[in-house]
Amino acid sequence: MARYVVKRLILAVVTIFIVCAITFFAMNAIPGGPFNAEKAPSPEVQKVLEKRYNLDKPVGTQFVLYMRNVFRGDFGVSLKTGRDIADILWTSFKISAKLGGMAAVVAIICGIVLGSIAALMRNKWPDRVIIFFSTLATATPSFVLATLLLLVFCIKLGWIPVWSAESNNYVLPVISLSVYPMAYITRLTKTSMLDALGQDYVRTAKAKGVSPKKVIFKHALRNALIPVLTYVGPMIAFIITGSLVVENIFTIGGLGSKFVSGITNRDYPIIMATTMFLAVLMIVFNLLTDIIYKVVDPRITFE
Amino acid sequence: MSVEENKMPKRSPFSAQIDLAKFELATEEEKRQQDVMSESTTFLKDGMRRLRKNPLAMGSIVVLVLILLLIIIAPRVVPYTYSGIITVDGVRDKSAKNLAPFTYSKLEQKYIDEGGEVFPHILGTDEMCRDYFMRVIYGTRVSLFVGLFASVLVLIIGVLYGSISGYAGGRVDMFMMRVVDIIYSLPDLLMVILLSVVLSQVITFQPGSLMAKLGSNMVSLFIVFGLLYWVGMARLVRGQILSIKENEYVLAAQSIGAKSGRIIKRHILPNCISVIIISTALQIPSAIFTESFLSFVGLGVQAPMPSLGSLANSARDGLQSYPYKLVFPAVMICLIVLAFNLLGDGLRDAFDPKLKD
Hints:
heterodimer; A: 303 residues; mainly alpha; 12 helices; flat; B: 357 residues; MetI-like fold; 2 domains; 2 strands; 1% strand
């Protein structure tokens, strides 16, 4: 167990380092420095600025300096607005975390419930309906769904106000982010639930006269949920990348829309900081999922 | 059979011979019923038989073939191009902006009234007076091309890497798999976006070449796919090879001095072909998804070349007035991805029942 955790931790640290290195050196490979704007400062001023931002040093040293600053919580400043990036990251992260967290909870709860219903009513109409819609949902990109929801409920029907400073309605963004993972979890739960229901211990429990409710919740569902647990890591990754476009569509000022507007504005420090931040977040969640998975299921060996 | 043959030989009174006259001849059909052995079949035939029984998979094939026919035939029938402004009688028609499906602009109407013929705009026109149907058709072409090409790229790199790693075993395998582990745990879409941003700035092409037409964004997308997405395939192939190479026929081949490359090519890869096919079929929709996502963020194909994602993105501007412009490319993406997903599932069930998740 300890060996496994250490191994995964080392892998995670190496991955995080590589992500940071790729981000940094990739951004450095782009031709043109940050001071090549339309109003280029005079060479003397430029020299002072370069010294101030350590741009006169070799790239390797710059990387070390940048990483040291990042560890201190200093991501530099945005090229476009001149604001402190750590500040921007923090304020927008709070919004994104709320949105993503809600989407994750909705996806997990609804997915498990629907999947269990589908498994328990196998080949009856609820099963067919659920599987039909979850198959359809896994083929719909989240940006398509988000735009359609926006069109129907905000513009045509006017039931839900468009996102603004006054009205923060999370319903539509949460739906558009959670539908895909929900469909996936539904299918996952259905297969593993069917698998669990066919096990000997379920038959034994039924034979002993345990109530059907108890059999389902205590014996079948608990075991069926283990495969679902493995999906939590990828789900977080999906929600994070999905939020890039969904936030943009609903004009929510979260991390995702900061990232996308950073891309369109070619605001490299922002792109760098958000990539690193989100990547570390995904890697950490993957690590946690893997470890929890092994802890929860004692049948899994640690090799 | 003639009666002659069934004539009884002369029977001695003590013979234990059966009196054939008391028996009836079996008809051909009855004989066939006694056949316990089924017809001998090849792996491919057997799989295809199972696939043919799967209505969802067959339906998907039909849908994909229809889409394929549509994108091949439509450009030959419809007289418009994806990038050109509509012309009426050789004159650029600037009034044909944002037409609804099957309507004509003033200029075109006048021309029709004068007896001219104008091909209808099946899906209307876009804000730059281009025929929208053709744009959707070409967008589908681009998206399908990207999906197929990226999957082939993943296939080649993944199979090569996985088979070398699995066959070599030992330290080489360990090192190669650590590399895979690291790439596998990279957040792929973020890296794709990042590298697309960078590569599109760094690479330039000679104007006029196919690469330039696709745009540096697309080329960087392929590069990124080639760099990051092959790891799943490599893992799969390696796992298969690890178990296959323990078979006696591999040992036999080794003992008569066959080279490693030959053993991999002739004895091992054909045995894991089903896994490779299935995973490629499932790779295509994910590549199309990724491409449409990038196009939507603005990192996709170079304008005026459309892709389904970029069409959906540009439809957002006039969403209130022209919602159908979003619906057509969106439905197309869903249809293609759905068809490939179902086909992939069907292939998996047909060719490798063990692989079910």
